[in-house]
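Lab manual, section 2.4: Encoding a predicted structure.

Procedure: take the sequence of the chain (205 residues), apply the prediction step described in section 2.3, and record the output as structure tokens. A sample record is shown.
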Amino acid sequence: MTLSLPELPYAYDALEPHISKRTLEFHHGKHHNAYVKKTNELIKGTPHEKAALEDIVRASAKEGGKLFNNAAQAWNHAFYWQCLAPKGGGKPSGAIAEAIDEAFGGYDAFRKSFAGAATSQFGSGWAWLSLRGGKLEISKTGNADTPLVHGQVPLLTIDVWEHAYYLDYQNRRPDYVSVFLDHLVSWKFVNANLAAAQPKKASAA
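Recorded output:
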């Protein structure tokens, strides 16, 4: 199965003025596309050739190296695009709002912790809101690393590689993180991830 670059769920200019069309053209069209193409090159003629991307990420995690780095980056980016939405951000509603209140004592505490993880990640990487054992937790990963291979279920991520924000924010990562939280987070996507991760209740007989 040849992997393909997923289309964005919005137009390249849909996130302006917070993330520019130019940034998305480079980030999605160049960087993400390069990870997909390289992964396809690396799996050709191997047992991974017909595997799903998530399975390739999990299978290559122990060895690391080029395959994991490219496959994980391809998966991380595909997930990240879904975490963004025009007119998104701000305080969440629904089940994720209740879960955040329970885990962190309120949205403001969550925001401070998530922003802290994103801004303090040294060098390139990601900050995540994930489930582990049914409980919410915030973490950060370097380079291509992903919660997928650490027993977590990702719910939300922010890309803090410089290519995600440098054209718009230069070295002002904290500004990019604030804009992400205030104007871009797709809480609808996060709620869907949370619902999918919850155990299904048995229907009454």
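Check your result against the sample. Strands lie at 125-132, 135-142, 153-159.
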